Structure formats: structure tokens, C-alpha cells
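Table S2 (continued). Query chain:
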Amino acid sequence: MKKKTLINLTNNVLKKYGLNQNHSKICTNALINAELVGASSHGLSRLKMYCDRISKKLINPKPKIKIKKISQSITHIDANNSIGFVAADVGIKEAIKNAKTSGIGLVAIKNSGHYGLSGYYAEQATKKNLIAMCFTNAPPALAPYGAKKKLFGTNPICFACPTGGKIPFILDTSMSVINRGKIRLASKLGKKIKYGLALDKFGNPTRDSIKALAGVQLPIAGFRGSGLAWMVDILSGVLTGASHGGKVKDPFEDFSGPQNIGHLFIVFKSNLFLNNYTKRIKQNIKRVKKLPKIKGVKEILYPGQNKYKRYKKNMNKTINIPNEVLKDLFSL
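Corresponding output:
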């Protein structure tokens, strides 16, 4: 389907569900961007979920977002159960503004929801020659190391910085071997997953995506991934006033109340300590890229380059949407 058609369709759906023109545009841009960068698990396959939660009054389509300035650098935001895209858009813009004013911006957000790709917000900071770190917690998916019950979310961490070129360095990764959205999409499409990604509810390795969702996802790097997921839960949950410790509600399955997800954005000037940051980052990347390569590798890529290539490749092409997702779109 043509990009313009999908943008109009998504915009119209969101406005039908009560979002104003500006908020619909913010959400649509984030969802379509996910499709263009090849992260369809965070794209239009989630639109029905957002609309279902709006219908059940678990997402507030007309939020009264409260922005509390603590200092020139620090802001605390109560998103009033806004859709996550809108809350994060307000948050990253506030963090950028704070950083431009004082050198660093720290923004905590509570009472939000799933906001899609962290890298989408971090990239906005790099366009202003700023460095960004983004943290957000999520519904239970990972078992803490040593436990047999899931409690932490996939809890992505994101780091982004300008490179002196058109492609920023963006590392955006979940603390699970695979993000939950990919397993969710596989279950919707009736596809299997690879072994080594998840266990079923009995603790057995599984390729069944439905059993994986009911079971436990495996963290990256064993206890290290578990520890990082815990760190993100503290930063984006405990610190912000959002749900934490396994209390974030699953947006697809738990309709007992709002998610109350928390986000933490840290944004600061790249030249905060040195005036020659651009020269140094270019030098850093060049040194890595000049290393001898293993067989079959043409270029050593830094995080963000592959995503940019997919984005450029898909920009002027029709976007392939699975029939199951298209049915949801048209029914909405």
C-alpha cells in the first residue's frame, strides 16, 4: 500500500477514536516510521490495540498533560494516561529544550503508555546536535535471574549521538533476546519463532509464539540482561512515579486499568566538555571501520546505519502490510 494512503488511513482512524489533529499526526508519524525502518512489530500491527484501549477508556484520547518544571534542567511530566506517542513527544521536546538552555535535560514521565521505538525519540535529539539516552519499562516478560516467574519487561535502553554526518549513532535494544512485539506479530501471523528466544509456561524451550507469550522471554547475556532490565525498571518506573516491579499492565491482554508506563529521557549537549566533539566522534568511528573484517563482511556498521538504509530504501516504495493487519485497519 502507498505510504500516503496508509498515513491518511491511520490519521483518520485515530481522529475517529477521539485524538485531535496534532496528536493523530504525532502517533501516525511514529507508526509509519516504524514500518519504514523495518520494525513492523512496533508499527501498524499495534494500532488496533491502541484503539481498543481508547474504547475501554484505558487510554485518554484528550489528556491534560501536566508539565512540572523542577529546575532549568529537570522536568516531571504526568501524561494523564495519554497514548504513549504523545507523552513521549512532549517529553523529548522538553528534554531538548532543557538541554539547549542549560546543557542537560532530564525528563521523567509517569502515567504514559507504550510509545513505540525509543530510537525514534532519541534521533530527534541528535538532529539538534545533542546526545540522548532513553529508558522505558514494559509489561512482565522476563524472569529475574534465578526466578521462574516473569516480572521485568523487555525494558529497552537507547543511546543516540550525532556523528558529524547524516546518519546518527542509535543503539536501541530490548533486554530480551528478541523484542516482545516480534513474538506478538508472529503469533498474529501464525508463525514460529527460533529456539533460544523464550520458554513456555512450564520452563521448556519453545518455538510456538503463542506459548512464548504465555511463558517467559529470555534475557540477553543471562544475569547481565536481567540486571539491566531491573536497572531500567528502577529508572523509568521507581524513579518517575510510574508502575514498576511487574505492575505494568499488558496492553493486549490486561484491561483492568491504564498501563502507567514510565519513561526517562536524558539529553545533553555533545560539546558540553570539549569543543571538538565532531572531530573526535568521526575519528572514533573511522578507527572502528578500518579494522580488518571477517570473511563475508563488506563494511563494519555502527548502530543506526542499517536502520537508515532500510528507511531510505522503503521511503519511495509501497509498504507491505500483512493481510491480518490490513483487516484490522479497515475494520477500524
